[in-house]
């Protein structure tokens, strides 16, 4: 993988991660508080789902 592509992708992830707290800080805070109440298993499920969607999208694009 080209290192420029890697760093560009990482930068884009940071932009998307920053949009919600910048545009709606109270909504982001409420969402974060709800996430804190989830069990470890639930968080792992959402994390795994996110990973699989990301890997599936990368596979589909290539």
Keywords:
62 residues; mainly alpha; 3 helices; flat
SSE map:
Layout: H1 3-23, H2 25-36, H3 40-61
Helix pairs in contact: 1-2
In short:
With 62 residues, the chain is mainly alpha-helical.
Describe the structure.
With about 60 residues, this protein is mainly alpha-helical. The protein has one domain (about 5-60). The chain contains 3 helices and no strands. It has helices at about 5-25, 25-35, 40-60. Helix 1 (about 5-25) crosses helix 2. The two termini are about 15 Å apart. The mean pLDDT is about 95.
Q: How many individual β-strands?
A: 0
H/E order of the elements?
A: HHH
Distance between the termini: 13 Å
| Amount of beta strand | under 5%
Mean pLDDT: 93
- Shape verdict: flat
Task: Figure out the total of helices.
Answer: 3
Query: How many domain regions?
Result: 1
Cα-based radius of gyration, to the nearest Å: 15 Å
Which structural class matches the secondary elements? mainly alpha
The low-pLDDT segments are: none
């Amino acid at each position: 993988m080209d290192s420029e592509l890697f760093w560009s992708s990482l930068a884009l992830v940071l932009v998307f991660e920053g949009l919600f707290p910048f545009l709606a800080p109270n909504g982001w805070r409420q969402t974060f508080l709800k996430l804190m109440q989830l069990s470890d298993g639930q968080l792992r499920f959402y994390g795994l789902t996110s990973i699989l969607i990301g890997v599936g999208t990368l596979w589909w694009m290539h």
